[in-house]
Amino acid sequence: MKLRITFLLPVLGWSGGNRVVAIYAQWLSEQGHTVVLVSRAAMAPTLVRKVKSVLRGRGWPRHQPVP
Hints:
Strand content: 15-25%
Shape: elongated
Distance between the termini: 34 Å
């Protein structure tokens, strides 16, 4: 029996538990299951974060939309 499996992740990345989920997802996919990984879209910097970035000398951050 082939399963459809969806993993919900808080953010997309390769650290910690996300790496383990990615390993499991790859293995399950190789076994013939349909696997989907879902995460939140990257958030645009808030005004407070932008101001903090300027005050720390990093400049005004640019918003980079997620493809």
